[in-house]
Amino acid sequence: MDCDHIAIKLRYIGTAYHGWQRQKNAVTVQQIVERAVSGALGSEVKVTGCGRTDAGVHAKEYAANFSAKCSIPCEKLPLALNARLPDDVAVLDACRVSEGFHSVFSCVRKEYTYIIYNSRLRDPFYVNRACFIPEKLDIGLMRQAAAGMTGTHDFAALRSVGTNVKTTVRTVYGFDIQRSGDIIKLRISANGFLYNMARAMAGTAVYAGHGKIGPGEIEDILRSGNRCLAGPTMPADGLYMTRAEYEEEPVRSMMDGRG
Amino acid sequence: MDCDHIAIKLRYIGTAYHGWQRQKNAVTVQQIVERAVSGALGSEVKVTGCGRTDAGVHAKEYAANFSAKCSIPCEKLPLALNARLPDDVAVLDACRVSEGFHSVFSCVRKEYTYIIYNSRLRDPFYVNRACFIPEKLDIGLMRQAAAGMTGTHDFAALRSVGTNVKTTVRTVYGFDIQRSGDIIKLRISANGFLYNMARAMAGTAVYAGHGKIGPGEIEDILRSGNRCLAGPTMPADGLYMTRAEYEEEPVRSMMDGRG
Asked: What domain range is B65 assigned to?
């Protein structure tokens, strides 16, 4: 069969889903998207996502790809698919890709953003959309800890066990922390993330902000490879996938666009 | 009984509720708040709200008051009540008021904000939080129409029938329209709002933005008192109560605070 190879840019609220990846007894984003694509194209289509986000994790920008006979032009795909998707999942854009394109393996850089609502009282509008921390956080200490987690390191101490990976070495290109009013955003970009790595890095920065971990200890924690020495895995509802970068055009431009 | 008179500042997501006002067969915000206050104070307490928001309407800042024997100091009331409230309703602040204070009758000025998500494709993060309009809107025309609705007028053409009011004359102090990216905010402040008035004003501005109503027609529409000539009552999920103002201290300061 003559196949079309297509990449799509997605946005979703993860609250109602058990993560991205297809599961037998739980509803996942992948299932929902595969059902929409299959329905629109009239054949059973498998959709590959750029990462397994966990249950409750959101995506502002998520890339996925599929190969199938597709008679709908790319510019009309978002509307055609959105008509078949629930309100909490949307396709923002679509483009053709090469046969060899793969959302995971072709990805050169990913970014996650962890959002903390840091105020004495909780705010209904941030429930399920940010992690509520009423205690004071020292942004300066958090930034120092974040700097210690930047660079190429073995991140074994900052991930959960449970997936097979060849190496636990990753390169963190940036770990930026900004406060704006009661909102603190932790933006982490890397060439790849181990299981729960973004949430463990956020938890370690939060522990530093509470003074429970000294910024100078980060180096030792990383060297130890001991998960127990680092901060906790933060709750899923504060985590957003915010970027997936590719070198191949036009996927690169599609993911760059604000669409 | 020696009573304490207390005002509270509330914030809530209206999606799960049939508006503010107590109803027999539906869950409302008033019921939820009364249950929390009664539970915390150990007696049955009636809570008066500053307005009947409709089903699905949100509140960023909402004022309510009650009279009861209250042994909890005001600064501890928010935490005590929030512990008894669901995640989508929160008390932000509390203060003592005079015996004559009444959330509705003491209110000198209210503000509603209508939020439109104006983009070709819907965004999951704005579902239930804004009204999605994919068509282009001319902000200049909307602003001209808004100016026509500002001032003291008979607003009979811009409300739904269904409540008894002595007069349909109200003074709109300001109707400000701002676009920021895909978000358009319509901020309306007035000395009072008739039933569905904010949503009818928003709908009339939207019709002007689509060119369906000329800004010059607003005067005639108001003069006619004919609801059919104005724009539609916009969906509830884009509407937020954003301000309630009082002259009595310390309520005035409490509602002014960012709390």
From this structure: 4-106
Domain boundary among B45, B78, B106: B106
φ, ψ (nearest 5 deg) of residue A228: -70, -20
Q: Assign A258 a pLDDT band (cuts: 50, 70, 90).
A: low
Same domain, B78 and B65: yes
DSSP-derived secondary structure for B116-157: EE-SSS--GGGTTTSEE--S---HHHHHHHHHHT-EEEE-GG
Residue B183 within any structural domain of the chain: yes
Q: What is the C-alpha to C-alpha distance for residues B247 and B239, in angstroms, rounded to an integer?
A: 25
Is the CB of residue B79 less than 8 Å away from at least one CB of chain A? yes
**Last residue in a domain, options B106, B123, B139:** B106
Q: Count structural domains, chain B.
A: 2
| C-beta atoms of B124 and A88 within 8 A | yes
Contact flag B87-A127 (C-beta cutoff 8 Å)? yes
CB contact A91 to B (< 8 Å):
yes
Whether B59 and B95 map to the same domain: the answer is yes
Burial code of B149-178, b = ≥16 C-beta within 10 A, e = fewer? bbeebebbbbbeeeeeeeebebebeebebe
pLDDT at position B259: 44
pLDDT category at A53 given cuts 50, 70, 90 is confident
Instruction: Say which of B79, B89, B128 has its CB closest to residue A124.
Output: B89
- The CATH number that applies at residue B184 is 3.30.70.660
Determine the Cα–Cα distance for residues A214 and B127; give it in Å rounded to an integer: 41
